[in-house]
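A.,

Following up on our hallway conversation. Structure tokens first:
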């Protein structure tokens, strides 16, 4: 369970540790390693190059930090070490924990796999702001992805980078659950995923189709979730800016109603300000 510490009016996510964690923090070098991997994911080679420490000693210290629940690792060759917790605390046995009042408890079905144990495991992908891809188009409204990260922040925390351009997607990023924002004309990841989604764009990109219906109109968008090659993927997009805004608003305000696979939605307002969103078909 995560709690929060307050430092200069800032809430810092804090993880409870046991005696092994306390023991690991006694060593100054381990604290230095912890600080480094809190800034960014690092490999053993990167750590060796920045520390006055042999590989065997480094491996020993990394093992102690992992045993103490202070850092995590992923990948194999190379293996990356990371920590996305801002603070740690030790709770004596006679002190009862309090419920964290700041973060929503129930992760919506649509975000299962994207937020696990109060940790954001997803990456949000937007189209690059310059002409690129098969359609040679640019994504002018990539700033909307900030709203997606705010939605994820209701349920989990992540200190590392969450938003990437589609031109930056590499094999390491592909290992994560991905949320692709905007349509296939401006986002090459959406173009790649389109045929696998329960709602998708037609070849002419002028309509959205599902198993049951066909939709058109500037105000139409969708949130669609599918497993692609064993990895969780979500597309949040619309035929035009208003439709994408409607999809983002639906994920923000009506996520619990979207079910496991998402929905086609219709927005009312402007492309910059959606006043109301309607769920027109659950997928």
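Then the amino acids I'd put at each of the 283 positions:
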């Amino acid at each position: 369970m995560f709690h929060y510490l307050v430092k200069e009016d800032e809430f810092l996510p804090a993880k409870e540790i046991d005696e092994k964690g306390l023991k690991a923090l006694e060593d100054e070098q381990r604290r230095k390693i912890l600080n480094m991997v809190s800034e960014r994911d690092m490999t053993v080679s990167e750590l060796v190059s920045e520390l006055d420490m042999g590989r065997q000693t480094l491996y020993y210290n990394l093992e102690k930090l992992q045993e103490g629940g202070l850092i995590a690792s992923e990948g194999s060759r190379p293996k990356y070490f990371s920590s996305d917790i801002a603070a740690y605390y030790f709770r004596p046995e006679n002190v009862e924990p309090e419920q964290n009042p700041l973060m929503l408890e129930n992760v919506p079905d649509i975000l299962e796999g994207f937020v696990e144990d109060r940790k954001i495991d997803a990456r949000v992908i937007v189209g690059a702001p310059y002409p690129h891809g098969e359609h040679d188009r640019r994504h002018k409204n990539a700033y909307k992805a900030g709203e997606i990260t705010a939605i994820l922040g209701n349920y989990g925390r992540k200190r590392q980078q969450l938003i990437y351009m589609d031109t930056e997607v590499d094999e390491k990023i592909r290992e994560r659950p991905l949320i692709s924002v905007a349509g296939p004309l401006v986002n090459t990841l959406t173009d790649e995923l389109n045929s696998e989604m329960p709602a998708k764009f037609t070849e002419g990109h002028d309509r959205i189709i599902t198993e049951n219906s066909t939709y058109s109109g500037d105000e139409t968008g969708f949130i669609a979730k599918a497993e692609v090659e064993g990895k969780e993927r979500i597309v949040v997009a619309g035929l035009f800016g208003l439709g994408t805004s409607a999809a983002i608003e639906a994920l923000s305000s009506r996520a619990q109603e979207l079910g496991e696979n998402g929905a086609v939605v219709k927005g009312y307002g402007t492309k910059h300000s959606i006043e109301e969103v309607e769920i027109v078909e659950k997928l």
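Confidence is low (pLDDT under 50) at residues 97-102. Curious whether your intuition agrees with the design.

B.
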